[in-house]
Amino acid sequence: MQKYMYDELHIELDNNKAFIDMYSHEGDVLAEMLFGESINVLPDKMKEFMTQYFHINTRTSPVENQTPLVLKFSGFIGTIYRYRITPIVFVDFYEDGEWFYMKESEKENTVKDKFIKAIPAEVIATLKKEEPNAIASIKQITRFDDNKDYGFNNLYGFDFGDNQFILINSENKVVKPPLDKAKEFINAGFNPKNELQYNINANTTGPYFLRYAFKVTGPTEDITLVMDVNGNMRNIWAGPITTEVGKTVALPRAVLEMLHEDIVSYIDTNYPEKDFISIFHSYSEIGDTPAKVNLVTPIPNNLTTLIFDTKSGEFIREYNTIGEKE
179 phi and psi, to 5 degrees? Predict the structure, then answer.
């Protein structure tokens, strides 16, 4: 075992396999370093990408510990491959070989010089028109699959400049954050009496699915609403998520009633006196349709989460945050 830059731990086994303990989209992962025959069996689309944009001959086995290198690790949606130039300059691919995420370094120009060529020219033309200086300061590019409004076409998200973000679809049009949907949800769920301020952060939960976080504030309000690109609620809370019951803020009844009627019936029957302080949807392995919805209620010195099927409203299970993991 050896520790390298960025505190990565490199592990070599006596069966000639090597691994890197590194930080990824889902926290720390153990990624296998691929050599020899492992390189030859990479997905064809990934090998085409490497050949086209980096002139890499995947039939040739790379030298051990040489950079760039190919890593393989598991995410909740399956196997992920990473073609890495440096620990902070890389391209990530799904199991089928389609790329979905490109990361840049402040000191490198790999994305601007090479990766950018993988983006359709028409999309780049729209980017240059809307944000003329974006390419010079690109930090990462994410390709989201949106299977609701655009079939299986792609949404291209560009992070650039000083925390700036722009989203362009495969029809070469800029996609705006669902601000109107956010205001509709807040008005219906909270019935605010005062004018509220909406601060927007894009792509707040990693590169798999696009999310917009709306920080909604007013004289007495402090609400966080997370939505997908189509304006569907994915997370909502209105105060601190804490085991100290007296510091939590209950979600209004109107917010709970936006859920499946069987969910509302279940909590009315089994938790008639309970406040719920947070609602969040679990990710789905197939597409951006959440399979489960979670409701969090505080109890003394702990939090209890109830899990329901999103579509049917059927109760699945509950667990306590401290002492048990889902």
Answer: -65, -40
CA 99 to the chain's CA centroid: 15
SS (H, E, C) the chain: CEECHHHCEEEECCCCCEEEEEEECCEEEEEEEECCHHHHCCCHHHHHHHHHHHCCCCCCCCCCCCCCEEEEEEECCEEEEEEEEECCEEEEECCCCCEEEEECCCCCCHHHHCHHHHCCHHHHHHHHHHCCCCHHHEEEEEEEECCCCCCCCEEEEEEECCCEEEEEECCCCECCCCHHHHHHHHHHHHCCCCCCEEEEEECCCCCCCCCEEEEEECCCCEEEEEECCCCCEEEEECCCCCCCHHHCCCCCHHHHCCCCHHHHHHHHHHCCCCCCCEEEECCCCCCCCCCEEEEEEEECCEEEEEEEECCCCCEEEEEECCCCCC
* Token pair of 214 as six digits: 């709306």
**Rounded Cα gap, residues 296 and 307, in angstroms:** 9
Q: What is the spatial distance between Cα 300 and Cα 136, in angstroms, rounded to a whole number?
A: 52
CA gap 101, 111 in Å, rounded: 11
* Lookup result for tokens 């402040």: 106
pTM, 2 dp:
0.85
Which residues of the chain have a pLDDT value below 50?
Answer: 58-66, 149-151, 326
Please list the residues that pair with 52 across neighbouring strands.
Answer: none
CA distances from 322 to 109, 152, 299, 300 (A): 45, 40, 11, 11
Predicted pLDDT at 320: 93
Query: What is residue 108's predicted lDDT score, i.e. its pLDDT?
Result: 60
